[in-house]
Amino acid sequence: MNIAIWIIIAVVVVAILVFAAIAMRRRKEAKLDLRRAEAREQRDLAQVSELEAQRQTAEAEERAARAKREQLAAQQQELAAARSRAAVDDLRSRADQVDPDVEPR
What we know:
The chain is an all-alpha fold. It has a domain at 41-98. Helices cover 92% and strands 0% of the residues. The protein is rod-shaped.
């Protein structure tokens, strides 16, 4: 009878150890699944951030190109204004040369 009790105790202990090992493995797998899910979320956030950064870069490049076009247009307008002023000065000079009432300089 003594041996039967020891055998029963040994079977119960082994069963407890097996159940504990199974529970630990499941807990470990659950932790791994949680870490995998967290990694997926981090990757998704990184992708969203990267897309936002690309959008901002594209907007900045577009703004820079627009500013460059505006700068070139302003320079062209300045040159046209300078040509107009030169033409005005030439016309005034000719008018002064032709006008008998204007004394030569």
